[in-house]
Amino acid sequence: MTIAVSPQALPALVLNADYRPLSYYPLSLWSWQDAIKAVFLDRVNIIAEYDHSVSSPTFSMRLPSVVCLKTFVRPARNPAFTRFNVFLRDKFECQYCGSEDDLTFDHVIPRAHGGQTTWENVVAACAPCNLRKGSKLPKEAGMLPRQKPYQPTVQDLHNNGRLFPPNHLHESWLDYLYWDTELQP
Prior knowledge:
Layout: E1 12-15, E2 29-30, H1 32-40, E3 44-55, E4 60-69, H2 83-89, E5 103-107, E6 122-126, H3 127-133, H4 138-141, H5 154-161
Parallel strand pairs: 1-4
Antiparallel strand pairs: 1-2, 3-4, 5-6
Domain HNH nuclease: 81-131
GO molecular function: endonuclease activity; nucleic acid binding; zinc ion binding
Pfam family, one: HNH_5
């Protein structure tokens, strides 16, 4: 079937040369245009295809739904310190009350007391808990984090990312992903 396809539609799952996703959260996806470009540059093998095709006057090609890199990309040893990665490490829960709403991040040892913005001193916190704690030390505020903050590995973040599958997983991707697919509609 040949159709007009928007860049956001029909993304390709990108696997490393060992057939594991480059990342789980966010899931490693390329637009169909980037996947086709990588095919023509001989950087990937097509593992699975959609039923949809793109065509030019002289060429037609089914869109890749799963591609595998030909060259192994060594994953980073240490993930970047970002707000999103702090939330992912802490499973998108306030480390003081467990709420999943209105998340911010909190310096366990406040900056006013010399605390630094590091993995070992920052936790996910809902806005009400963050405001309640303010610039107090944890014992002064009576608010100890549920888990001691730590620098996660890439594997820690991948494992946590598997707890939060995207809203849509194409059936051709399921053999390469390790989520509970019964959660999918």
